[in-house]
Amino acid sequence: MWIADNWKDYEIIDTSKGEKLERWGKYLLVRPDPQVIWDTPKTQKGWKKMNGHYHRSAKGGGEWEFFDLPKQWTISYKELTFNLKPFSFKHTGLFPEQAANWDWFGDLIRKAKRPVKVLNLFAYTGGATLAAAAAGATVTHVDASKGMVNWAKENAATSGLSDAPIRWIVDDCQKFVEREIRRGNHYDAIIMDPPSYGRGPKGEIWKIEDAIFPLIQLCAQLLTDKPLFFLVNSYTTGLAPAVLSYMLSTVLKKHKGKVDAQEVGLPVSSNGLVLPCGAAGRFQGL
Q1: Sequence-separated (6 or more) residues with CB below 8 Å from residue 230
Q2: What is the block-wise mean pLDDT of the chain (286 residues), using blocks of 10 residues?
Q3: Helices (H) and strands (E) in the chain, counts
Q4: ∠ CA(131), CA(270), CA(29), 5° rounding?
Q5: pTM of the complete model beyond 0.70
Q6: Spatial contact of 270 and 255, defined as CB atoms under 8 Å apart
Q7: Which long-range contacts (CB under 8 A, 24 or more apart) does 156-164 make?
Q8: What Rg do the C-alpha atoms of the chain give, in angstroms?
Q9: DSSP state, 122?
Q10: For the domain with range 7-84, which CATH number is right: 2.60.40.1180, 3.40.50.1370, 1.10.3210.10, 3.20.20.140?
C-alpha cells in the first residue's frame, strides 16, 4: 500500500462505526467512510468536540451539522496551500491520500532533468496540478466543472503558483483528449483521477467501468516517445489494483517502463492502522 504519511496539517485521528474523525488544520470533522465497517469504542475526545459532522441519510446523500466551523480555511502540504470548505456529499475539496502520488511524481519530475509537460484529467481542485507545477512541470489542467477549475486557480494563488505555467481548461475530458490528438499535441506525463460516475458540461454520462479503458487507450496516443509517467486513480471498489495494473500494462506495452498498482491509504494516529482510500496504477518510464 502507498501511504500518505507526510502530512502535518491533516490526520485521521480515529475510525469507528462507519465514520472517521479527522483533523484538518485546527478543525475536527467527522465524516462517513464506507471502508470503516468495524465498531470500536469512540474514546478519542474529538468525537465529542468536532467542528463539523456530516450525517449520511438512509435515503442517500446527507447533510452537514456545524459547530464553530468557518466557511473556508486553509491547510498546507509541504510548499502547497489548499483552500477548504465543506460542501455537498461530505467533501472538503481535497483528498489527502493523494499526497502519496504527489510525492512520487513530484520526485520523478524534479529528477527528469528535462522539460516535462503534464496533462491532468478530472483535475478537480488542483492538488496534483499544483504538486506537478511546484516540481517544475508545465501542466494542462482539465475538468468539466467551471467551479472546480476556479477553485483550483484559487489554490494556485494561495500556493504562490499564480504565474506557474498552468493551462486551465473547462471541458469534457474525453472530448478534450480527442481534440488534442487531432491537434497533434503530446505530453510527457498523464494524471487521471476519474469519478465512478459523473456528467460532462452538456450532460454527457461517464461511468468508469465502461469508459476508463477506452480513455486510457486514447490518452496513450498523446504520450511522447519516452513518457515519464502515467497515473490512474480509482475510488471504485470494482477496479482493484490488479485491474489498473493490467490496463496500463496492456495499453503502454510499446513504452519502456514498469507498472505497479497498490491501494492508497492514510495512517490512523490513534491505533497505527492504515485506512484504505482507493487505489492507484502507476507507469514509470525507463
Answers
A1: 189, 190, 192, 219, 223, 248, 252, 282, 283
A2: 98 97 98 94 96 91 94 98 92 97 98 97 97 98 96 98 98 95 98 84 76 95 98 89 96 97 97 95 97
A3: 6, 17
A4: 60
A5: yes
A6: no
A7: 156/126, 156/129, 156/130, 158/74, 158/81, 158/82, 158/83, 159/79, 159/80, 159/81, 159/82, 159/130, 159/134, 160/79, 160/81, 161/130, 161/133, 161/134, 164/133, 164/134, 164/139
A8: 19
A9: S
A10: 2.60.40.1180
As given in the structure block, the three cell numbers for residue 217 are 487507450
Cell of 197: 460516475
Collapse the DSSP code of 178 into the 3-class scheme (helix H, G, I; strand E, B; otherwise coil) and give the result: helix
Amino acid at 99: A
Which cell goes with 273?
A: 492502522
CATH class of this structure's domain 96-285:
alpha beta
